[in-house]
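Justification of computing resources. Each target in the renewal requires a structure prediction run like the one illustrated here; the chain below, 144 residues long, is used simply to show the kind of job we budget for.
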Amino acid sequence: MLDVNFWDKDLQDLSQSEWEMLCDGCGQCCMHKFEDEDTGEMLSTDIACRLFDADKCACSDYAQRLLKVSDCLNIRNFKTEHYHWLPETCAYRLRFEKKPLFAWHPLLSGDAESVHQGGVSMRQRCISENDVPEDEWVDHIQES
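Resulting structure tokens:
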């Protein structure tokens, strides 16, 4: 049985099912990113991992993703210095920083579509890495 507001727990105290439910389904972590060498700032692109399903806004092979994609982020194993890689709207980052979830988060809204309606998700707003040469990815950096 789940705690009513389990998302208020520290991340390390979440069960596996609670951890999975904390994900808002935005798909932003599935986009390729660059780190500015001078500032450390994370620069997100609209280039999606080859396993990302843009219609469902989810990984097409979540169970095998870590085996199939060598640089897939295993957020559950993040160290403190890695959380800045996640977008500021990410529930994992928010909870790591002891901040509340946004009202559009499905756990608060009760609606899995609220993340898409809130304009936060990458549903139909990205391009597969298979469709863009890697040397052009930098041209797909998104404005903050």
